[in-house]
Amino acid sequence: MNSAEILVHKFLGYPFWSQLLLTLGSLVALIAIWTACGPSTQHAPEPPSFPPLKALSTADRQFPQQEKSVDAVAFDLSGRWMATAGNYHWQGNYNWQVLIWDFQTGELVRRLAFQRKPITSVVFSRDRRILATASKNGEVALWDATTGAHIRSLRHKDAVRSVAFSPDGRALASASADRSVKLWDIEMGRELRTLQGHSDVVNAVAFSPDSRILATASSDKTVRLWNPETGELIRTLAGHKAPVVALGFRPDGKVLASGSGAGYKLWDVRTGAEILAQSRRVAVTAVAFRPDGQILAIAHSGDENAWNVDFLDLDEGRTVQSFAAHWIGASAIAWVPDGSWLVSVGRDGGIRCWH
Q1: pLDDT at 46 over 80
Q2: Burial level of 92, CB count in 10 A (0-12/13-18/19+)?
Q3: Among 263, 273, 268, which Cα is nearest to 241's?
Q4: Residue 8 contacts by C-beta under 8 Å, 6 or more apart in sequence?
Q5: How far is it between the farthest Cα atoms of the chain?
Q6: What is the pLDDT of residues 289-304, one digit of tens each?
Q7: Which pLDDT value is given to residue 308?
Q8: For residues 88 and 115, what is the distance between their CA atoms, to the nearest angstrom?
Q9: Between residues 104 and 214, which one has the greater pLDDT?
Q10: pLDDT digits 0-9 by tens, 332-342
Q11: Is pLDDT above 80 for 40?
Q12: How far is CA 334 from CA 76, 129, 331, in A?
């Protein structure tokens, strides 16, 4: 990233809109001067095609700059509603909450899920009626996504790390530090079955687009593929050198991405063969395929000087863009369902929107 790009990033990475508008003319002139007179950029990285065009504040106007971290993000199928989970200040105290935003306007719509332990995962049901949250208190909570009313709670024996709805709407999967994965009947709130086999904490779950395969990722450094209807283990994917914490199916269901503390891998779902492996200096925290399946976004932890959101072009098999999206690393990422935006959230309390 050259000096002009860094300057643009700093202006666009923070929501000081009034200052940005006042200095826009000078900024454009500065970029033009740098382009004409600056040093050669023949070795500089390609200009990103996903520049940060806007940043939503994680605080509403009543509580500016009070939040500590944002750890999860999800969209409903329409792309209008965005849910974020983080440690927010409310009525004199910090609590772990879920905020629901109107993504089109940036307006905070409602708050829910006040808890004293971190909320690790949020997800909307495909029909947009239910929002599920996972917490380190061992609870999976189901909420009415329209009213914010609490519907019911489902329990594990230890912290719940991840939740995922099946695309067919029939089940909810939850992954826990108790080394189990549970499948739940959403309407009745009853446990359908428990999947056991991982020898350590289960960190992530993901359904294939046709709902016929459930992938689970664990600190035992493996990924397992299950038949969610029968509970049968299909195969185990081994080869990671650190705990596996992130999963994502390509929209056609043929490729699975998994991220660990040492990098990420792509797998052929049908055969279990490893397609691609990339090592990373810092831990991968999330992976997400763009809805067209051509780009994989990878979020990872990092420091002030490290890239922490990468974009992998699957046709070329290489990283084509990288951004320092968050000062203290990216916690989670999510694509808007039409693929027009990627949102990243981080421990710096920021929500960054990439177009």
Answers
A1: no
A2: exposed
A3: 263
A4: 27, 31, 51
A5: 67
A6: 999 999 999 998 865 4
A7: 82
A8: 10
A9: 214
A10: 999 999 998 89
A11: no
A12: 11, 19, 11
- Those residues with Cβ within 8 angstroms of residue 101's Cβ, 6 or more apart along the chain or in another chain: 56, 81, 82, 83, 84, 107, 108, 109
Say if residues 207 and 184 touch (Cβ distance below 8 Å). Answer: no
Which run of H or of E encompasses 125? Answer: none
Residue 113 and residue 141 in contact, taking contact as beta carbons nearer than 8 Å: yes
- The candidate with the shortest Cα–Cα distance to 152, out of 173, 169, 178, 130, is 130
CB 266 within 8 Å of CB 255: yes
pLDDT in tens, 256-269: 999 999 999 999 99
Instruction: Count CB neighbours of 35 within 10 A.
Output: 11
Report CA Rg, the chain: 20
Q: Which helix (H) or strand (E) holds 12?
A: helix 3-12
In the numeric block, which tokens belong to residue 201?
């904490």
Residue 57 has pLDDT above 80, yes or no: no
Cα–Cα distance list, 343 to 54, 72, 171, 272 (Å): 10, 10, 26, 30
Q: Which residue has the tokens 């329209």?
A: 146
Helix (H) or strand (E) holding 278: strand 274-279
Q: What is the mean pLDDT of the chain?
A: 81
Closest by alpha carbon to 168, among 125, 211, 225, 138? Answer: 211
Look up the pTM and report it. Answer: 0.80
DSSP character at residue 54: B
Q: In the structure encoding, which two tokens stand for residue 324, read together?
A: 């320092």
CA angle 198, 293, 308 (to 5 degrees): 70
Dist. CA 329–CA 336, nearest whole Å: 21
Beta-bridge partner residues of 218: 202
Q: Which CATH number fits domain 51-354: 3.30.70.1520, 3.30.390.10, 2.130.10.10, 2.40.50.180?
A: 2.130.10.10
Helix (H) or strand (E) holding 20: helix 17-37
* pLDDT band (50, 70, 90) for residue 159: very high
Please state, in angstroms and rounded to a whole number, the distance separating the CA atoms of residues 34 and 221: 47
